[in-house]
């Protein structure tokens, strides 16, 4: 098969690679759409922690074209989404249903070959049927489940006011879930006016560009001087990870979904906000719960199918498999404003 193979830092080669017949508990998925995650660009530009050469891509959907003898849950021809995470099911976290915290998990696209290829062999327990769902939308189920994992566990209340820092793909998906959860008013915060316009179209009542107006003063003016009930950090910026603490009201909650990939050093005032306001801080990792893969995945599929979640509007770029390097170069060098970028190894 053909694949986009990572050989070294930001060096991807489109080449022929071998793929085995699937094992008795596996299926072979013909990849129809695969998303580039923000973490992919980071891993591509820093020291790769896993074996090279490697095939990246952990957000993908496709068609089952082969199945092992022991597989009974799906059929050849089924449309499916891949669950990239494989829990060990032996550690204490797995035994308590906290699969996202598994200490010895597998992961497609890093520890084993992922979706930037024509085909992927994957355990049959790691695919879910999508029925007639569009493959491009289905490739976004993984980030949608990540967003829902954060929203579910920050426990928003009907009528809350929330601030969402960073309105890239995860931020926009968080905004949609917050609206579904009954949050009364959402303030989108980003340094891109274009991204803020997208947030408005997704139902955000207010937007703030901190480069153009004072963030804290503006949030306080929108919330009767109290601050928001919830802050959700989706930018993965050490700046916004501090700002969350400044705009959240007393007894409020702060949720961290973004990863800064650098030291986060808090100023005295920001750090004191944690205990003077008695804030609750929570971090959210991955998207899995019991029974595996969890309600995050099941509800994501349901809400896409009933039209409650908008995904197509978030896709800004589509590339052929042989153009994978070009796609990463565009994102890394920020040659264009982008939303969700997809690789399409096998066009319908």
TrEMBL record:
Obligatory cofactor(s): Zn(2+)
Keyword Cell division found: no
Protein family (similarity comment): Belongs to the zinc-containing alcohol dehydrogenase family.
Pfam families with a match to the protein in the record: ADH_N, ADH_zinc_N
Gene Ontology MF term list: oxidoreductase activity; zinc ion binding
Domain Enoyl reductase (ER): 7-343
SUPFAM superfamilies on file: GroES-like, NAD(P)-binding Rossmann-fold domains
Organism: Alkalihalophilus marmarensis DSM 21297
SMART domains assigned to the protein according to its UniProt record, in alphabetical order: PKS_ER
Protein name as annotated: Alcohol dehydrogenase
PANTHER family, per the entry: L-THREONINE 3-DEHYDROGENASE
Alphabetically ordered keywords of this record: Metal-binding, Oxidoreductase, Zinc
CDD domains noted in UniProt: sugar_DH
Protein's UniProt keywords contain Acyltransferase: no
Entry superkingdom: Bacteria
